[in-house]
Specification:
The protein is an alpha+beta fold. The chain has four helices and eight strands.
Length: 168
């Protein structure tokens, strides 16, 4: 087990991209499942006290996940993930955007390119994520709304889930 796991979060405003690197003390197959199986994603996919609720998920190229982050007070913020490329246990690409509960994507806040890469060395899985926004304004809006803080909290949730699943 590795101590001092890497967590890097960098913003490049020249390319409208957020780059994230996060290590987990878990096998690659388990981390892959955590990013690709609805029943696991919903356990960690929102910063506490919010929860993630998937309405539908068709995990295949051309498929879509429609989900909401739900507050304890009942607020729902809907989003989509449209899968564009899946290379099992190596890479996942999708376009994300904000939507309504029926999956109608908000045109101004859609089309963020997500590129998620997975690798494992000595039982430590590294996840490298790039999020490329259509415009600098969209990137800055996400940063202003606390994306870094929220994402950090979801990674803490994921780490707890992976620890529990690894212990089984």
């Amino acid at each position: 087990m590795k101590n001092n796991l890497i967590f890097e979060f960098n913003v490049d405003k020249t390319t409208n991209t957020i780059f994230i690197i996060r290590e987990f003390n878990a096998e690659l197959s388990l981390v892959w499942d955590a990013f690709t199986k609805q029943e696991i994603i919903d356990q960690w996919g929102a910063p506490e006290p919010w929860i993630s609720k998937t309405k539908s998920m068709d995990f295949k190229v051309g498929g879509r996940r429609l989900y909401a982050m739900c507050s304890p007070e009942g607020q729902e913020h809907w989003s989509t993930q449209d899968y564009t490329s899946i290379t099992p246990k190596t890479n996942l690409k999708y376009l994300s955007g904000f939507a309504d509960k029926d999956g109608n994507v908000h045109p101004e806040f859609s089309g963020t390119e997500n590129d998620v890469n997975f690798s494992e060395t000595n039982g430590v899985t590294t996840v490298r994520i790039s999020l490329k926004y259509k415009t600098l304004a969209n990137l800055e809006r996400m940063i202003e709304r606390g994306f870094r803080e929220g994402f950090t909290l979801t990674m803490i949730n994921l780490e707890k889930i992976l620890t529990n699943l690894s212990a089984k």
